[in-house]
Amino acid sequence: MGLQVPKRSGALRRSLRVALLGVTMLVLAGCSEADTRQIRNLAMPDRATEQGPYTYELWKWAWVAAMITGVIVWGLIAYVVVKFRRRSDDEVPRQTRYNLPLEVFYTIAPVLMCIVFFFHTVRVQDVMTELEDTPDLTVEVVGYQWQWGFNHGIGEQNPDAFGDDGDFAYEEYVYTTGDASEIPTLVLPVDQRIQFNLHSPDVIHNFGVPSFLTRMDVIPGRVNKLQVTPTVEGTYAGKCYELCGVYHSRMLFQVEIVSQAEYEAYLAELAEAGQTSEEPLLGGANATTQTGLGESQSQEGSEE
Ligand SMILES: [Cu+2]
User: Fold this and answer.
1) How many angstroms separate the alpha carbon of residue 297 from the centre of ligand 1?
2) What ranges does the record give for the region Disordered, renumbered to this chain (predicted)?
């Protein structure tokens, strides 16, 4: 005996249909321009560098591959659900074991897919981590608990400098950093290949700008290097991506990509404000000389 389901009245069906239509319209109307952009970008930010599109393409095609796999799997599930459904209460399905060709297929296919994913991941990673011998300029970045400092070189860059202790690319620097009331701004010239030398005097941080579609750990005791070529002028958000302590969430910064002339004017502005030094300020002992870290704060820090 089957289940006795009361037939829905026509009125109920009509009101259900109206409700469904209403919900659909509400959902569609709720899509702001930002949402539409997010959907179009597959939840990725706009690309602001030459290297960014590589990450984006990897992301996009990984989704395409996952979708194709999903559609095949869902299709097969629907097919067997319908084709092999129980047709009468006392039917016992045919019992089958082993299907060698099928088992070989579903072992080899995922392995092949992993190889393809791996190949493209390595290819993109090589682009994102590539270090050209002669970047157009080098910025010494310091991430410290809990702030960022940016040291821009003045004058000619020494292409042989390695960026480690004392071996810096410039003879003179201007610097900027944030304080408790203001986050710092990293100003960069457009269309120049920029190398970031990443320093940390305390714990592991992570230097990341979503619109660059890349980021890198900032590790005490070593200098990690990252090169990007910004291509779109504008203001972007950056932050620390490694939980580094109680005020990790304050390690925000702003990135401004500007023209070469504006960049030079900015450096002159910093120099005029007296924010100059012979060597980049890299936190630690230097922290006392950085803006935003007054003497009282640094003394508190040294007592720990
Ligand atoms: Cu941090």
Assistant:
1) 19
2) 277-304
Token pair for residue 87?
Answer: 């047709």
Report whether 264 contacts 159 (CB < 8 A): no
Q: How far is the CA of 142 from the centre of ligand 1 (A)?
A: 10
C-alpha of residue 161 to centroid of ligand 1, in Å: 26
Q: Give me ligand 1 centre to Cα 273, in Å.
A: 27
How remote is the CA of residue 244 from the centroid of ligand 1, in Å?
5
Helix (H) or strand (E) holding 14: helix 10-29
How far are the Cα atoms of 70, 127, 136 from residue 133, in angstroms, in the given order? 43, 14, 10
Parallel/antiparallel/unpaired status of strands 137-144 and 194-199: parallel
283 in Cβ contact with 151 (< 8 Å):
no
Beta bridge mates, 102: none
Question: Are 188 and 256 spatial neighbours (Cβ–Cβ below 8 Å)?
Answer: yes
pTM: 0.78
Q: Which residues contact 31 (CB under 8 A, 6 or more apart)?
A: 39
Å from CA of 203 to ligand 1 middle:
8
What is the tens place of the pLDDT at every residue in 108-156? 999 999 999 999 999 999 999 999 988 999 999 999 988 999 999 998 8
> pLDDT tens across 131-144, in order?
998 899 999 999 99
- Tell me how far the alpha carbon of residue 217 lies from the centroid of ligand 1, in angstroms: 9
Render pLDDT for 25-70 as a digit per residue (tens, 0 to 9). Answer: 766 667 788 788 888 888 888 889 999 999 999 999 999 999 999 9
Cα(145) to centroid(ligand 1), Å: 6
